[in-house]
Design a protein that fits this description.
Number of domains of chain C: 1
Largest sheet of chain C: none
Chains: A alpha+beta, B alpha/beta, C mainly alpha
Number of domains of chain A: 1
Strand order of the largest sheet of chain A: 1-2-3-5-4
Oligomer: heterotrimer
Order of helices and strands of chain A: HEHHEEHEE
Structural class of chain C: mainly alpha
Radius of gyration of chain A: 17 Å
Shape of chain A: globular
CATH architecture of chain A: 2-Layer Sandwich
Strand content of chain C: under 5%
Number of helices of chain A: 4
CATH topology of chain A: Heat Shock Protein 90
Largest sheet of chain A: 5 strands, antiparallel
Number of strands of chain C: 0
Radius of gyration of chain C: 13 Å
Order of helices and strands of chain C: HHHHH
Low-confidence stretches of chain C: 80-103
Number of strands of chain A: 5
Chain lengths: 169, 116, 103
């Protein structure tokens, strides 16, 4: 019971935010995944959901490392995790990834509905499959900003967790 | 046989039926290139049957799946057989999201893999 | 083999090969769902859009979207390497995730 109470207090804390800066070196990925998995579990996601969220971020970071910077392993990537609430009250997690590589779509496509313009590829497909919301934008001082969000299925923190067979994928 | 140091390759075993490669750990963008090189070495010996034991693989992303797909294509090219053994539900999920699961022989154990 | 067609599509997308657009559009009608998925992912990477195509939709819907693709290629709305007009230079330079790599 007291554990449930502690969980409710954690989820109602609006200030929980983690910021990480890594270099564009793939050896950093496992550190970020571990931190995100833990954060997601503290936010009430199941271990399977936390794994999926870490996978989505891992794919996003791999894209920045491979394509955003295209080689150098000493370029900065800024990552944030933040507990958020959906409009319908479901708690969730917002991830952002900010890099300082060159800007691409959707920033420079003209004459096209920007909602239709997306980067593609397999990593993006995985990110879209796992996450509830995903959006790229182009900060005025360069680079790209990616925002992704995932919300918990259960509407209330004290709802009974589904039996272990449930797989959120 | 030549064992290249690759942290996710725990062991390579040769039996009359197959070469078995036991993998371990998390296979991501950092590990995939080394794994690719190690698997290319094994496939170069053109084993009739190549078995990847995935029991200890707790995580794999699209770079890892891509590495295994490249191995599959090599093994297919000389008409060998590749089997993946004991994928965790999470790792299998990545194959399913990338729609590549159906291209692989997936078994629950090495015994089943060598009998197939 | 479907795996070869799927991986061929994936490679075309990763190398941002605009010349592959017409054959990728042909693969949108492949009987294998994985081939169709990798083909539309590659087209999205190269051109920035899916033009409403859904690889899992029923064939009639897929054929309708494929007609959209063929129309867009014919009218030049999509940048295809052999006929890249000067006015589209900006779009061509940065179209697709791969363009961020300086070649």
């Amino acid at each position: 019971m007291s554990q449930d109470g502690a969980k409710v207090r954690q989820m109602m804390n609006p200030a929980r935010r983690v910021e990480l800066t890594i270099t564009s070196d793939a050896s950093s990925l496992q550190v970020v995944r571990a931190a995100l998995k833990r954060t997601a579990e503290l936010q009430g996601f199941s271990p399977d959901e936390a794994h999926d969220v870490a996978l989505a971020l891992d794919e996003a970071l791999a894209n920045v490392i491979k394509h955003g910077y295209g080689g150098p392993c000493n370029m900065p990537i800024h990552i944030t995790f933040e507990g958020v609430d959906h409009d319908d009250g479901r708690p969730g997690l917002r991830l952002t990834v900010r890099d300082h590589g060159r800007q691409v779509d959707p920033c420079t496509i003209r004459g096209r509905n920007l909602d239709d313009v997306r980067p593609g590829g397999l990593g993006v497909h995985i990110m879209r499959t796992v996450m509830d919301e995903i959006e790229w934008s182009c900060p005025t001082d360069g680079g790209m900003l990616l925002r992704m969000e995932k919300y918990r299925k259960a509407p209330q923190p004290h709802a009974a967790a589904p039996p272990g067979g449930g797989r959120n994928s | 046989m030549t064992l290249k140091p690759c942290p996710v390759v725990k062991e390579i075993r040769e039996t009359p039926e197959a070469i078995v490669v036991v993998l371990t750990g998390e296979i991501d963008l950092h590990q995939s290139p080394g794994l690719h090189a190690a698997l290319v070495d094994v496939a170069a010996r053109r084993p009739r049957r190549l078995v990847l034991n995935m029991t200890e693989v707790g995580y794999m992303d699209s770079s890892g799946v891509g590495t295994l797909v490249e191995l599959l294509r090599r093994v297919n090219s000389y008409k060998g057989k590749l089997a993946l053994v004991n994928l965790s539900q999470r790792v299998r999920g990545v194959f399913e999201i990338t729609k590549l699961d159906k291209f692989f022989q997936i078994h629950a154990s090495e015994e089943q893999a060598v009998q197939a | 083999m479907p795996l070869e067609r799927a991986m061929g599509a994936k490679a075309a997308g990763e190398s941002n090969d605009r010349r592959a657009v017409p054959s990728l559009v042909d693969r949108l009608d492949d009987e294998d769902a994985a081939v169709r998925m990798y083909s539309i992912l590659a087209l999205e990477r190269i051109t920035g859009t899916r033009l409403g195509y859904d690889y899992a939709a029923r064939r009639e819907q897929r054929l309708a979207a494929i007609r959209q693709w063929r129309y867009a290629i014919r009218t030049g709305e999509l940048t295809v390497a052999s006929s890249q007009p000067a006015a589209d230079q900006t779009r061509g330079r940065t179209n697709g995730w791969e363009e961020r790599v300086a070649e």
